[in-house]
Design goal:
The complex is a heterotrimer. Chain A is mostly helical. Helices cover 76% and strands 0% of the residues of chain A. In chain C, strand 4 and strand 5 form a beta hairpin. The chains are: A mainly alpha, B mainly alpha, C alpha+beta.
Amino acid sequence: MSAPLLQRRQARLAYAMVAPAIVLILLIYIGPMIAVVLASLTDYTLISDYWEWVGFANYIKMFGDAQFGNALRNTAVYAAVFLPCAFVIPLWLAISIQKRKQFRSVFEILYFMPVTSTLTAMALVWSALMDSRQGILNEWLGNIGIGPVNFLGSPEVVLFSLAGISLWAIIGFNMVLFIAGLTAIPRSLYDAARIDGADHPVDEFLRVTWPALAPTSVFVAVTSSITAFKLFDTVAILTQGQPAHASEVFLYLTFLEGFEYFNMGYAAALSVFFLGVIFVFALIQTLMADKAAE
Amino acid sequence: MSDLTHTPDLSLTDRITGALSRVTPGRIIVTLLLLLGAWLMVFPFLWMVSSSLKPTSEVFDSDFTLWPKTFAGWQNYYDVLVTQPYLRYLTNSMIVCVGILVVQLATAVPAAYALAKLKFRGSTILLGTVIACLTVPINVTSIPIYLGLVKAGLLDTYLSMMFPFLVSVFAIFLFRQFFRAYPDSIIQAARVDGFTEIEIVLRLILPAAVPAAAAFSVFSFVSHWNDLYWPLIVVQSQEKMTATLSMMQYKSTFDINYGRTFAAATVVTVPMLLVFLFARRAFVRGITMSGVKG
Amino acid sequence: MARLTLTDIKKSFGETQVLKGISLDVQDGEFLSLVGASGCGKSTLLRIISGLETADSGRIEIDGVAVDQATPKARNVALVFQDYALYPHMSVAQNMAMPLVMGRLPMRARLPGAKWVTPGHAQTRREIAAKVQQVAEQLRIAHLLDRRPAALSGGQRQRVALGRALVRDPSLFLMDEPLSNLDAKLRVEVRREIVELHRKSGLTFVYVTHDQVEAMTMSDRVALLQEGHLLQVGPPGALYGDPASIDVARFIGSPEVNLLPVRAVAGGLQLAGQALPVASGQPEGTDLMLGIRPEAIRLAGSGTGPSFGLQVVRHGVEDLGGELVVHGALAHAPDVALRLRVQKAPDASAPLHLPETFAAEVPVGAVLLFGAGGQRLAVGQGASLRTEVPA
């Protein structure tokens, strides 16, 4: 009789311990997620209290919406610039820094500093550095005979400039992840590779480092992709989607629709689309992580 | 005697010649690239601090000097901290971040312990929900949460600023992994010794969780300090403005005193940089832990 | 097929000198064990021989050719690692083929996907596959070739590591504690297999271990290292029976050798007041150490030849089945501990009974004598008469 009693006591205690978390998860995650799906089927706006069910009208509107297409295209262009650099540069840095004994921690600190800083404040600094007339970047470029470049004011350049700022902010983060991955590779694998004759750096990288780093690489690739898709802060503070909607990326468009124009139904549909994309990334990560761990 | 003094000298010369023999053109190029990269990482900070000490006329001077020609540092920082409400902003940020952190820890630690070590019906569903919610960013649920806060008349309050983050599914997951690794035998021994379950959590588990909690705290604090998206949605008055959000004011011509502008940017950025420099290990661990966050 | 010559190898890490001048000659086809406590420098020496580490000074020759600056590849050495160091993302076949792929294919044929892009090396690839198959069959792991290392047992991984070393026909076969991750039973089995492998291949083996039993049972010769010095090199029996110093005597042998403090007196030695008929040739009054192997102490009257008697107090007995290990002390000097190994008669029906105090004897020829500095001293028959111990 005492064992079930003990178990019942343990279960009662367990419910007491998880209750606050469950209530908050329902309020903050489950409820709003159901609500956002439902809201995406309405024409609700904050301005008028009258609303009705519109079925999939918001989704149909979305796929015909030029702004939506533009935002997706901008996000894709930005990601195409940002992602390869956000992967290759930190990987190279991690390998170069991890090997040296001297100054390793100094380099780690310096490269990691942007990660810790408040990006909104640093965005102001970047906009000053990138100023089309008086910015110091244009001064440097002028010295080598290039420019001046209108970094944030030209529709052709603005996404590249934003990608540059994001890279500055993320390189140290991905580098630290790669260094952690590299540190976990057993020394003896490199020794074995040298004994087996793989002493050329290319062989060493292809036969040991790259395969052993696969789980880290998947992780870095997926988190960086999500980061790219969530680009918001620098757009909000520096360009507000300008010039000529050239920097209006997906999340910023969703924000505008919801919290500037108060088209809550339509913004909810965009949010659901956003959730779908994130879900696909999570799925890719799970599948690839399983494959990499094999 | 001469032998004793001779040996270290020899090994020192050996080491120097050894170090010199390792200097190859490839290594020099790598080092130069690393230094150049580090300079690019750090330069915006140097420029920001330098500009914060200059009068407006000098900020965009074509010949940039690290140390101001005319020192306006006292005036700029006095204006920001005393004349402008920056102390208010910093306090708001602090209140919001500490409030979020305390509630997150208070809800996550017991829930994680129950999930890791106690048997109760529904634990699998709860864990599955927690893991599923890991992938859901605030951007997806922001519309319904915002509408709920509007209906409740809670906009522009500390509660509304903290609300979406009061439960961290990431923390629950992280602590659960951590508690699962805690040996069952010790917990059972404590039960045999007459400890109640609460005492076990308070006297055994919590002390052991301190390193994980420290790393998570740094992670939580930094991400909410630097958050722009949510304060931008719910904060309406100067009274509740956070330090990060205050940077948005400069997107228009809020202040044409550039020296003062960058003094403000410095004031907003410095707290997190200090946290980083003084708690580097916990910081890097905390931020790479977001690992699971996806 | 190679002879390895090391001359005055020195190596330091920072301020710590790990190897303090090692000179060693390994004959073609020999099985040499480097044995010593952890931290004695044996693994560092092996890494220097393999080329993974460079010595600070000294010379390494393989077959008379200096290889100090040569890469491991150029030295053509094979090394089996303690943790096997199998590539986790490659199949067993790919792991074993690695040294051949690196050795026989040019860089452009080694790049990923090159198999399909440049078919020019099909012949070489077939040869590599055939060699891997052959070695795998020899090691009885042919059925595992498609598996990943993670799906193998410890013993199977061990064989794959051996296979990867064997495929290349190395000049030197180096092993770094290859058995330490196996359980006791498997260890004995693999030990025999490695010896067999050595006999069949005729290769020169250098084997690092901290386990003296492994070193003694497997090798032609054992090299004992301590704190960066080579204490003694010789056949296993020689290190046991004829140790060059007290450190060698202490390290080799289990249970450990009995070391009894004695003093040279006229005509012999004095052990805690008892005169022993062992001539040391040392000036009277010199403090010495007398070493007696546990099995050299026998029950009184159970042997012939010149010997001296000891009265032993029994403290504890470990019955190992075939023999007893007795822990005790000298009857008249309880602080002088003694360990004895007593063989049971093979047909003994009743358990061997030892009284609380019993008489034992030690053949004079079986004792080891060491000077105050630990150096080995010659012994002779002492002048005093053989002391009879009543049975």
